[in-house]
Write a structure and sequence with these properties.
Distance between the termini: 33 Å
Keywords: Hydrolase, Metal-binding, Metalloprotease, Protease, Signal, Zinc
Cofactor: Zn(2+)
Low-confidence stretches: 1-46
Largest sheet: 5 strands, mixed
CATH architecture of one domain: Orthogonal Bundle
Mean pLDDT: 91
Organism: Brevundimonas vitisensis
Protein name: M3 family metallopeptidase
Number of strands: 9
Radius of gyration: 25 Å
CATH class of one domain: Mainly Alpha
Pfam family, one: Peptidase_M3
């Protein structure tokens, strides 16, 4: 998951903040104090005076105010969210009912400033439901989801408000708005239209029903998957964990003890399952672990998600057609770089054929070693054997160099070398945290000493926490009511090591950590004026995070941080050479497992008639694409959180591949310069790619940065596929 953006249109919440590289106190020639007065009219209507007010009030404490995690309870959070809705309703009513003619200042800027109290509460809500996830918070999420959806629709469907937004956008040229102001006004107008603002009253009522039903289904899906992931494979015989690295074995033992079990527990999350499938020599046990993992949400019990998915795709199809689109994918791709499903399919199909051909080669190599057919639970295990045979490269040889704390420090060093950010750990208790495991770091600009913000790091899995790795922002930089710093976070799901023992992670985990950290750097670098222009297109937002993965194996980071936990020596170049020689190894598997998920996502959301049997659709879709039988989708539909906990990545999972084209081309740019920390390229990357948000067309921004369009051939070369 990634940097959170909530929009008023479409039944969701807008968290509003702004950035200014110049620290100016004027917006389009209007003093900020005047703009603040526009929104203050609404704030005065319903003052925050209730017992739950502390969760709505401006955050206090050090570092320009921090979230009051230590004062959050499920009951208080629910009450705060409900009161926040009322406060926001009053603010928007004041804007819509303003007797003055609509202007950029009294409409668009006032809207940016509305909803601040519920924005603060929603930051707490996201963490308590996603990172903590106790039954009490799950109950709050179920209750509030439809209420929040309806409250968002109320804003979108407000005819007077939409008329004001449309008037400002349509009259942008006559009013002399700047290019940035015009972009904000036009994007706001178009977003309202895509979300149903131009529908008639009967259609709006139907759209509201659909949005509320979707909100309920999204919450139900996510909670069912979390419940199915709160499981493990219990192993009592040491032969069942044979082959695991000492650190993986110790982590499995610790996981068992934390559940009052003897032996070992392989937790049902990817960070525990993949190492077991890669190193565990007990084939029957691998099959058990694999089946438990890939069947999350698909067991025909109370946590089965198939009916929920069928309801979601039906509702999405109804919504798309109500809004005048042929299908959900066409609706979702209006505000993307790809623009159409056909463009996304074109890129995916260009990569799909060579990826499948590579899988056939990989399977042949593995079968020669195994002496039997390769099943999905065999793939990672025998791929490791082939890697050892071909490249003399062993996963167990790599792990001692990737101790979690060192990997994080290496990421901080990357941020300092590229962008001039420094990260200093805060002593425990300096600021409140939502769990004792959370580490907090102060971020400063090295050149000036200016405080930039805080970085919260929540690294470990726990019962109730959703799986995977994601980034989010609790507060974005703002200058509207005084300068506000950035509060960003990364979230992982590593299994804790034994007390006193180092936590060793895989190279893949290290790259994932750098990936999510790239999202945080995107937030910390922001320097645009209007907060609503902060969120970039879905098929662009992954680009800055993906490119940062490449620095993991850069020599300065290896020498300074990736040191063997026993010898203290940095990774030798001979081992790096082996990794680089094997860089395109197993790319058939990696590409097919990801791309099959992206293809099925787009296939699902372009159907003329939504399927009702989701398992059957998944099988038939994969068969149409010729999915190799030895591989399973990285995310099967029954557990595909990207698609079914919100609309965010629906008809959009292709975006990782779209972003990877720019990512590969950018990394080639750094490499070709002879210095992967090239300060001139890094400065331009920060200024154009990271800092601008969505203030200009992102394709045009890439051309300004690179001097041309991204080259798809760079992606094919990175993955080791023929360049056609």
């Amino acid at each position: 998951m990634h940097r959170r953006q909530f929009f008023a249109a479409g039944g969701s919440l807008m968290v509003l903040s702004a950035c200014s590289a110049t620290g100016m106190d004027m917006v389009g020639g209007t003093p900020v104090s005047t703009l603040a007065a526009d929104a203050a009219v609404a704030r005065a209507v319903l003052p925050v005076q209730s017992p739950q007010a502390e969760l709505l009030q401006v955050w206090t404490g050090p570092y320009e105010g921090v979230p009051p995690w230590d004062r959050v309870t499920a009951e208080k959070l629910k009450a705060a969210m409900l009161e926040g809705i009322e406060l926001r309703r009053a603010e928007y009513a004041a804007i819509a009912d303003n007797p003055e003619p609509p202007t950029f200042a009294n409409t668009l800027v006032a809207m940016q400033m509305a909803g601040e109290p519920i924005g603060r509460a929603f930051a707490l809500f996201g963490v308590m439901t996603g990172n903590i996830g106790t039954p009490e918070y799950q109950a709050v999420a179920r209750e509030l989801s439809p209420i929040l959806s309806a409250a968002g629709d109320e804003i979108t469907f407000n005819e007077k408000l939409f008329a004001r937004v449309k008037a400002v956008a349509d009259g942008a040229a006559a009013a002399g708005l700047t290019a940035e102001q015009t972009r904000l006004a036009e994007r706001s107008r178009d977003g309202f239209v895509r979300s149903g603002a131009a529908l008639n009253p009967t259609q709006k009522a139907e759209l509201g029903r659909i949005n509320t039903a979707l909100a309920n289904a999204f919450t139900a899906f996510g909670q069912k998957v979390v419940a199915d992931e709160n499981a493990w494979t219990h192993i009592t015989d040491e032969a069942g964990v044979a082959g695991l690295s000492p650190s993986d074995k110790a982590a499995a033992a610790a996981a068992a003890r934390s559940r009052n079990l003897e032996g070992w527990a392989i937790v049902n999350t990817r960070s525990s399952v993949d190492p077991f499938l890669t190193l565990g020599s007990d084939r029957a046990q691998r099959e058990i672990v694999w089946k438990k993992f890939v069947n999350r949400g698909d067991n025909g019990d109370a946590n089965d998600t198939n009916a929920t998915i069928a309801e979601i795709v039906k509702l999405r199809d109804q919504r798309a057609k109500l809004l005048g689109y042929a299908n959900h994918a066409e609706l979702r791709m209006q505000d993307t770089m790809a623009k159409t499903p056909e463009a996304a399919f074109e890129l995916m199909n260009r990569v799909w054929a060579p990826a499948k051909a590579r899988v056939a080669e990989e399977v042949a190599d593995m079968r020669a070693i195994a002496g039997h057919d390769i099943e999905p639970w065999d793939y990672l295990f025998y791929a490791e054997k082939v890697k050892k045979q071909k490249y003399d490269l062993d996963q167990n040889e790599l792990k001692p160099y990737f101790e979690l704390g060192n990997v994080k420090r290496g990421a901080f060093y990357m941020a300092e070398r590229l962008y001039g950010f420094t990260f200093t750990p805060l002593a425990a208790g300096t600021v409140p945290v939502f769990h004792p495991d959370v580490e907090v770091f102060e971020v400063k600009d090295k050149a000036t000493g200016r405080h930039v913000g805080l970085f919260y790091s929540d690294d470990f899995s726990r019962t109730g926490k959703r799986s995977g790795a994601w980034a989010t922002t609790y507060r974005s930089y703002s200058t509207y009511d005084g300068v506000k710093n950035v509060l960003s976070s990364n979230n992982n799901n590593f299994t804790k090591a034994e007390p006193g023992q180092p936590l060793l992670i895989s190279l893949d985990d290290a790259e994932t950590l750098f990936h999510e950290f790239g999202h945080a750097l995107h937030s910390l670098s922001a320097a645009y004026t209007y907060p609503a222009l902060g969120g970039t297109p879905r098929d662009y937002v992954e680009y800055p995070s993906q490119v940062h993965e490449h620095w993991v194996l850069s020599r300065p980071i290896l020498d300074g941080f990736m040191k063997h936990v026993e010898t203290g020596q940095p990774m030798p170049q001979s081992l790096v050479d082996k990794i680089e020689a094997a860089a395109t190894f197993n790319q058939g598997y990696a590409t097919v497992s990801y791309l099959s998920s992206a293809l099925v996502d787009m296939d699902l959301h372009t159907q003329a008639t939504p399927p009702t049997d989701i398992d059957a659709f998944e099988r038939e879709s994969l068969a149409r694409y010729g999915m190799p039988k030895e591989i399973v989708m990285r995310h099967r539909l029954p557990q595909f959180n990207h698609l079914f906990t919100s609309d965010a990545y629906s008809a959009g999972y292709y975006s990782y591949l779209w972003s990877e084209v720019m990512d590969a081309d950018t990394w080639a740019y750094f490499e070709e310069s002879g210095d992967v920390f090239n300060p001139d390229i890094a400065a331009r990357y920060k200024a154009i790619i990271l800092a601008e948000g969505n203030t200009t067309d992102r394709a045009e921004a890439y051309r300004r940065f690179r001097g041309r369009n991204p080259d798809v051939a760079a992606l094919l070369r990175v993955r080791g596929f023929p360049v056609s």
